[in-house]
Specification:
Keywords (chain B): Ubl conjugation pathway
CATH architecture of chain B: Roll
CATH class of one domain in chain A: Alpha Beta
Shape of chain B: globular
Oligomer: heterodimer
Helix content of chain B: 25-40%
Number of strands of chain B: 4
Strand content of chain A: 5-15%
Radius of gyration of chain B: 15 Å
Pfam family, one (chain B): UQ_con
Strand content of chain B: 15-25%
Shape of chain A: extended
CATH architecture of one domain in chain A: 2-Layer Sandwich
InterPro entries (chain B): Ub_conjugating_enzyme, UBC, UBQ-conjugating_enzyme/RWD
Order of helices and strands of chain A: HHHEHHHHEEHHHEEEEHEEEEHHHH
Protein name (chain B): Ubiquitin-conjugating enzyme/RWD-like protein
Largest sheet of chain B: 4 strands, antiparallel
Number of strands of chain A: 11
CATH topology of chain B: Ubiquitin Conjugating Enzyme
Helix content of chain A: 40-55%
Distance between the termini of chain B: 39 Å
Strand order of the largest sheet of chain B: 1-2-3-4
CATH superfamily of one domain in chain A: Zinc/RING finger domain, C3HC4 (zinc finger)
CATH topology of one domain in chain A: Herpes Virus-1
Order of helices and strands of chain B: HEEEEHH
Organism (chain B): Gigaspora rosea
Number of domains of chain B: 1
Strand order of the largest sheet of chain A: 1-5-4
Largest interface: A-B, 17 and 17 residues
Amino acid sequence: MSVQSDDDLMYEDSCPDSDEDCELEDVDNDEEVIADEDDADFNFTDVVAEKDRKKSYEVEFKVHSIQDIVKNQDEEVTHVSDMLRIQKQHAATLLRHFCWNKERLIERYMDATEEVLKTAGVIINDSMRPRFVKVPGFVCDICCDDDKDIETLALSCGHRFCQNCYKHYLTQKIKEEGESRRISCMANGCNVIVDENTVELVVDVDIHERYRTLLNRTYVDDNESLRWCPAPSCEYAIECHVPQASLTSIVPTVECSCSFRFCFGCSLPDHQPSICTLVKRWIKKCEDDSETANWISAHTKECGKCHSTIEKNGGCNHMTCRKCKYEFCWVCMGPWSEHGTSWYNCNRYDERSSQDARDQQAKSRASLERYLHYYNRFANHEQSAKLDRELYNKTEKKMEEMQQTSNLSWIEVQFLKKAVDTLVQCRMTLKWTYAFAFYLSRNNQTEIFEDNQRDLEMAVEQLSELLEKPIEPEKIGELKEQVLNKTVYVSDRREILLVDTAKGLLEERWEYQVDITS
Amino acid sequence: MSTTLFSKRLSKELIDLKINPPAGIEVAESDTFKCWKLSLDGVEGTLYAGERFTLEFRFTPNYPMESPEVVFVGNIPIHPHIYSNGHICLNVLYNQWSPVLSVRSVCLSIQSMLSSCTTKEPPPDNNHYVKTAKASPKQTQWSFHDDSV
């Protein structure tokens, strides 16, 4: 919660008749922020309301467990089945065909029932419920078995095969091909879908379990507003209603119950305040450039004509570009043709053509320098966040020791964990501000952004420094107070930056150096 | 269980092909249930009359649930849907495979594909495809857009 944010100022403005009240409220806020557990009883409801309200850079989302996902599917299926008066398994097939877009399914079904059923591979025929039967004189078209005792099965399309073949077929599809919602009748050219009930009837228990898992997976994969948490071995899915089209104006950051924070738009780890498309570009650029960029900058020059990067590893100043065959002088970068016969010795450094060639070079070097400026800061925060975590691990050990040797309680040192968490989170935000700023055009807006960035950066470094201090038992109270204050301040700075950036995105206030729609 | 279905089905198919062979189609090699070779004669009155081709079928133990791998070997017919490495662009061999289909029905489909051809020419993207394709045509993502030939 921000004490100095605009909202509080607005609140103060909105109740001029009761100044005292407002002040009380502010005091309460301060306390609340500094020491959460000392929450005063009065005005408690206000505090809760304040907390519940979404900040402008946050989005609504919901975390679903596997059980929720199963339940949601059931509810959707029951709803459609009741509404269209069709059996549940058919409703499920239809919903899957329409990627769980219930509204579109119902609309299309009302418009053109026959067509919808046909393309979705459903034949509604209550008298033809798939079940095992023995049919006299039956020969299975697949295994050619004509034993009179064999059980046979046909879907509502009437194509009949033996139990064994069905079992093989479904097992193959589910186990080997990972197919679930699009398994069709075995007959050539028949698109009738094998419904859930039939699958359960035919296959073994373990295969059926696999089938259900695959169905759950497709439910989330097909659903635009659902996404699996990308954390390793996490089984939660997140529901968030931010469409792909609005990703240039919103950074939908969500937090899973496993505490992993990621972007709903692209599944990458939390990259606020930068928008997905710039993040993607930045990552690609870093993969292409960063490793070698430094070395190239220090050791090479560019061909004046084709801009290939050239390393001079010996020989005279007369260079011939391997790629475009341009001949130039390594010293002045001018064309070699103007050097006459003064080999090994360049006296043309100040001539026009040589200067032009160097200007060109300087420009491209400048763009590299610019990139490195942002990249180094980006990488620095990534690295520092790691170091901060390590520092915390070390501190934690020390705390345990101190607990045994002094009369400090565990709870008294927990403020450090909170501080490190905040620090790491702010570093992540800072990291992505550099990727964002790299693509911003130079204007006043960008300057404001960079001011916010600088403020956060300074605050973060101060907090980081505080945490580096050696812990002395007698001064722990003092340190605690300092750390708590700084932690609050750092969160505020982060909040201000995120709020302003998010507002800018919504107002389309940011101008980019690249086309973000492409 | 899988092997019984697989071998039972293939033995039945083999007996059927030998006793009652379709016109112009003959089993040339069927020593194992892994790989068969069948000869395919160009039908009289079509562009391929008088020519003889060889089709190779490779089966996995999942046959007939899984499609066989079918390619031309040796003399490859020049046809807009047959690449010069022997790969055949025919939907029933890939995503439209059904366990009901058989070696016989695949051969007949390919024979009719040859017979309905009006100009002997390789596929437009032949050079590119042959250079980049994997050994098995089942690894290719086929798109089927021309049902006329």
